[in-house]
Amino acid sequence: MFLNKADIEKLLKEGELIIKPLLDTSQVGEISIDFRLGYDFLVSIQGREPFIDASLNNEDRHPISSFFQETRRNIGETFLLHPNQTVLTSSLEFIKMPRDVFAVLNMRSSYVRLGITIATIIQPGYCGCMSLELTNTNKNAVNMTVGAPIIQARLYRLSSKSNYFSKPRKYICQVRPQISAVNDDGDLKILHRIWEESNNKIT
Q1: DSSP-derived secondary structure for 50-107
Q2: What domains are defined for the chain?
């Protein structure tokens, strides 16, 4: 079930949904909530390596973290997102989701029109700042203001409650952006073992 403004405000009043700080009540719209660009950024950089290795088949692979650089801005300062660049950042707000509600995140229309994209969801029961993976598909760099509302979240209610912590999670209660942990995926370990066997790599 899709949640409207009355539903969202009820969740906030009852403490089922927590958003801190909610700087302006107008952030809660008729069918969505606006979230603001946070302080911290992990910026993709071009290093000496030709590619990011999202497999386990190369023993000499460089850590994914070596392809990103940390930087921070204060509220009101700007961050320049270059063409074809992906940056990992977080929402200014800390959020705690109800166990039976999830959120779909989209860029606000004004930023989509500048060529900035995002595609992610927030799981039921999640707590922490929201991880935002922003990509500039424009041919021009875009200068964004820290603290500006750039994201819209649409909330949906499940038919029953779920337990976010029922299994190990790679990203839990983060307050700053985190590097991709793709190399920790269990399936990659299985696939790497198959690759080793088929290429006589196992001794």
Answers
A1: SS---SSS-TTPPPGGGGEEEEE--TT-EEEE-TT-EEEEEEEEEEE--TTEEEEEEE
A2: 5-198 (2.70.40.10)
